[in-house]
Specification:
This protein has about 450 residues and is of the alpha/beta class. The chain has two domains: about 300 residues, 3-Layer(aba) Sandwich (Aminopeptidase), CATH 3.40.630; about 130 residues, Aminopeptidase i, Domain 2, CATH 2.30.250.10. Helices cover about 30% and strands about 25% of the residues. It has twelve helices and 22 strands. The strands form five sheets. Strands 1-2-3-13-4-14-20-16-18 form a nine-stranded mixed beta sheet, with helices on both faces. Strands 8-7-10-5-6-9 form a six-stranded antiparallel beta sheet. Strands 11-12-22 form a three-stranded antiparallel beta sheet. A hairpin with a 3-residue loop joins strand 2 and strand 3. The longest helix is centred in the first third of the chain and has 20 residues. The chain is globular. The two termini are about 20 Å apart.
Amino acid sequence: MKAYDMENSAWARFSEEERIEVEEYNKTYKEFLDTARTERLAVKEIIRQAEAAGFRSIEDVTSLVPGDKIYWNQKGKSAILAVIGENPLTAGLKIVGSHIDSPRLDLKAAPVVENKKIVYLKTHYYGGLRKYQWVCMPLSLIGVVYTTAGEKIDIALGESPNDPVLFINDLLPHLAKDQSEKKLSEAIQGEMLMPMLGCNSTEEKTKPAILTLLKEKYGIEEEDFASAELEVVPTQKSRDAGLDHSMIMSYGHDDRVCSYASLAAILNAAKGSHTQVSLFADKEEIGSVGNTGVQSSFFLDFLAEMLALQGHTEDLSLRRTLRHSEVLSADVSAALDPIFADAYEEANSAKLGYGICICKYTGARGKSGSNDANAEFVSKIRQIFNTANVPWQTGELGKVDQGGGGTIAYIMADWGCEVVDCGVAMLSMHAPLEIVAKTDAYCGYLAYKAFFESK
């Protein structure tokens, strides 16, 4: 099979056996999507699968030898898996770095408000989303609340078929003359993204009745929202899209299509000469900040702990490990959409269904914020994919002056690693429901597995 082929789709290049593998892989991917609905749930599922495959918490080991499998749980919101290789850690690691957070609506600290006897939840949108897309659809409320007594309460409203859902209203077209004349970015404003929580009450006010229901169902008081992390996400679970079942429609493809591929790859890859590492990070959508984002010290702390377990506690060992490491920044890219062709530069855009996308640089306004991978490293990745018969393509994020975006690549490059962006191209990125081609999702798995197994 020709690995780089922009005339024939990956599906056309795959054998019948490989097409069956595509379908089998995407069944498990959809199960992951429907389970890992938030970053906390993603970490829980990642560690569950890792432990089932023999991984142990790094806190439970006293030394490391080749073949050992360990994980790091960063506050239940980020995770790292590693398989120790034959070479010393200072010879460098093979790292696939993805993120498990997705654009959404977060509840404010004091979210429950009443207006004209309708009770709403106040939200603050998370990540770069288009606000008008989040109205008039069923929404779930998922997350954790810590009560005054310190008890943790898990919330999953809207996830069961018998649950009620939340809903954000929009103006009816009959009365929308003024709204329709506004710019798309202004027709729905951030403070208008208020899910409806209820309207029934026999009293003058509705809010007390809703708070009583929250107390009865979940055991939480209004004050408890101050110590909560509650996310509003689309209720719709993953579904096949297209008459030929060639695509998957789901919330959270960005970036769980890459994070699941990284998980499946490290669980199934043959042990390599280099230590294999899968990083699943939080907070990428808002700049990789906080102590669960990649700009914090937790990944470097994990490497330092691994080195210490092999008897290396000096800072120089950590620096050497990073300097000799290779990284695939596993984040999604934009696939060409011919309906919106004016936003793309076709010759340099990835295409849906043509394999994993190598993106030498991201950024905006003259590559600002981009890693801009070295040609030597891109050449090596090409050779790995060609040798392993992994369908691949190149792409960038639209026309030069149209917009842009970024990933965690530049952060890991700052540590001295060789890094290139390498992820699945998709449609409707950051929308409540996004589209990926099944073949591309599977190619992500093949690419990361081949990278882990390479020398």
